[in-house]
Specification:
Elements lengths: L2 E6 L4 H4 L2 H10 L2 E7 L3 H13 L4 E5 L11 H10 L5 E10 L7 H18 L3 E6 L2 H10 L7 E3 L6 H9 L2 E5 L9 H9 L5 E3 L21 H12 L3 H16 L3
Parallel strand pairs: 1-2, 2-3, 3-4, 4-5, 5-6, 6-7, 7-8
The protein binds zinc ion.
The site of zinc ion has 5 residues, from loops.
C-alpha cells in the first residue's frame, strides 16, 4: 500500500512525545508519505523539525489557523516567509476562515487569510484551506485573490457537491477526512460519489476526526485507509485505485518526486 495522508497534526500534543512509535506504526500500516500541518508559528516550526527528522516520509506545511490570528504581526509573517523557503515545506497552511468559534473576528481572520494567500503566491506554494461555517466568504476570497496559479486543498471538505465543483474550477483539490465514514454524513458521501477521483485527496486531520470503526478514539495517519475504503465503496471501484490515484494527486500538488 502507498497511502498519502495529506493532513496530520503529528506536531500536536498527543503525538509529540511518542513520535518514533507513531511514525513506525504508520510505516508498518502502509503510510508512505504525510504532511504535518502547522496552525501557528511554533507548531509550524515543529512541523519542519519533523520533516527533517523523517525525510521523504514527512513533509511540512506552515501557516496561521484562523482561530490563532490574534496578535499576529508582520514579524510573524516574515518568519512564515522564511519557513516557506525550506525545501521540506510543501504548502502554506492551514489558513482560512472559521466562524464557528468567536475568539477572533471575521474581519481579522480575513485580513490574515489574505496576507497569507499573497505570501503563498509570492513563494509559489499551494495553500491548505480550513473552512468552517464560512464557505461563501472563503470562496469569494479565493476567487478574488486569483489563486489558480498556485492551487491548493480544501481540507476536510464538508460543503456541497455544487461548491466542490466551484472550488475545483479555482484549481483546488477536495480533501476527504474520516467524517465521510460517519453513517449519517450523506452530504460528504454524495461529494465522493460525484466528484472525479482526479480531484480528490485523503487525510486524517489526526488527532481529530477519527473515522469509523475507531470513532471516539485517537486518530492516526494510518486510518486514511478507512477514508479510502469508504470512497471506494461509494464510487464502487477498487480501493487500490483510490489509494494510488490520491497518492499521485498529492505528489503532483506538493511537487514531490
Ligand atoms: Zn488541521
Amino acid at each position: 500500500m502507498n497511502l498519502f495522508d495529506t493532513h496530520t497534526h503529528l506536531n500536536d500534543k498527543p503525538f509529540i512525545n511518542d513520535i518514533d512509535n507513531v511514525v513506525n506504526k504508520c510505516l508498518d500500516n502502509g503510510i508512505k508519505k504525510m504532511v504535518v500541518v502547522g496552525f501557528d508559528i511554533s507548531s509550524s516550526l515543529r512541523a519542519i523539525d519533523l520533516a527533517y527528522r523523517f525525510p521523504n516520509i514527512i513533509y511540512a506545511a506552515v501557516g496561521i489557523h484562523p482561530t490563532e490570528c490574534n496578535g499576529i504581526n508582520e514579524e510573524d509573517l516574515n518568519r512564515l516567509a522564511n519557513m516557506l523557503d525550506e525545501p521540506c515545506v510543501v504548502a502554506l497552511g492551514e489558513i482560512g476562515l472559521d466562524y464557528h468559534w468567536d475568539t477572533t473576528t471575521p474581519k481579522l481572520q480575513k485580513e490574515i487569510f489574505i496576507k497569507q494567500i499573497k505570501l503563498a503566491k509570492q513563494k509559489k506554494k499551494p495553500i491548505i484551506i480550513h473552512n468552517r461555517e464560512a464557505t461563501k466568504d472563503t470562496y469569494d476570497i479565493l476567487k478574488k485573490e486569483d489563486i489558480s496559479s498556485i492551487g491548493g486543498i480544501m481540507h476536510s471538505y464538508s460543503s456541497s457537491v455544487e461548491m466542490a465543483s466551484e472550488f475545483i474550477k479555482l484549481n483546488m483539490m477536495i480533501s476527504i477526512s474520516g467524517v465521510v465514514t460517519f453513517k449519517n454524513n450523506h452530504k460528504t458521501k454524495e461529494v465522493v460519489k460525484k466528484i472525479d477521483l482526479d480531484h480528490l485527496l485523503i487525510e486524517t486531520d489526526c488527532p481529530y476526526l477519527t473515522p469509523e470503526p475507531y470513532r471516539g478514539k485517537t486518530n492516526y495517519p494510518n486510518y486514511t485507509y478507512y477514508v479510502a475504503k469508504e470512497i471506494a465503496n461509494q464510487k464502487n471501484i477498487a480501493i487500490d485505485e483510490v489509494i494510488n490515484t490520491t497518492y499521485s494527486n498529492a505528489c503532483k500538488l506538493f511537487k514531490i518526486e
